[in-house]
Amino acid sequence: MNRYKLAHVTLFNYDGPVSESYNELRLRPRHDDSQSCLSFRITTDPLSKPVAHQDYFGNWVHQFHILPEHRRLRVESETVVLVHPHPPRVSREVTLAELDQMQDSLEEEHFDWLSPTQYCPLLSALSELVYAAEESSDGTVRGFAEAAATLVHEQFTYKPGATHVHSSVQDCLDTRAGVCQDFSHLLLAMLRLRGLPARYVSGYLIPTAAMDAQSTMERVIGGQASHAWVQVWIPEAGWIGLDPTAGCFNESRHIHIAWGRDYGDVPPVRGVYKGHAGQSLSVDVLVRPALDDEGVELLQETAAVPPPRPDGELEQQQQQQQ
User: DSSP string covering 213-234, please?
Assistant: First the structure.
C-alpha cells in the first residue's frame, strides 16, 4: 500500500478573547520524484481564506489571518499522497579523505546546508561525537553519516517534555534526551561539522500498521506521526535520508512536507495573536491507507488533550515536532 490519506488537526483554545491572529502553515507535501501530492485541502474554524506561495526552499506555505475576536482556532489539513517506489542506488562509495578535498566546492554549492544556525550551532562539544562516529564507520562518507545517525539513536533517550520547541543542540547535549526535532538538529550539526551538507526535513512517519494492506485505518494520537529527520548530501549519490529517532530510514514510510536549514525554516504551524489570554495547544494526526476495505475514502475528526501554555500580550503559537 503506497497511497495514504493524512489528516493533521491543530487546535488552539484560549482562556479569553483574542484577535488579529496571523498564521503560517507548512502542511502541504512536496511533489517530486519520490512522492506525488494527489490532493490537499486546508480548512479553518473560524473560517478564513488561506493564500499560498512557495518559499526560498520550494516548500508550500499557506497564510491566513482572523481579525475578529475568537476563543478557539482549529486548523485541519487533508492530504492524499502517493509514494513512488525507489530504485536501488548504485554509486561509487566516496571516502572521507576524498570528501576533505572537496570542501571548497561543497561550501560554494551547498552553503545553506553547511552553515551553523540558531538551532544547530557547530559546538566544540560535538567533536567527540563526530570522532566516535568516524571511528565506528568504514571510512566512507555514507558509512560516517549512517554511523552518526546510529550514535544519536543509541546514546540519546527519546523523552517528550525533556526539551521545548525552541531548544537547541546544546539543550539536547545537556539533557541527553529529546524528541525527533532535537535528534535531527544534533545529527545536522554533527554532519555539517564534518563537512557534509545536510538539511532538516519535516513530514510524517507512516505507522507500521498502516503499511499492512489488511489494515483499514491506523490512528496516531498527539502528533506522533508528525515527524522530523535529516537528509545528507553524499557525493556521487545525492541526497539520502537518515532518521536518528527511529534508528533507520525507510523511504516508503517517510512522507516529506518541507525542508530547510533547521526547524525554524519549516514549522508546521506558526503564528501570533493579540490579547492577554493564555492558550492551550493540541495536535492530532491520522494516517491510514487512502482507501478502506470498501474502497471509500473517509477522514475522521480527532482531538488530543492539550497541554497548558503561558499567558502573554502578543503570544506565539507554534508546534514542536515529536
Answer: TT---EEEGGGTTEEEEEEEEE
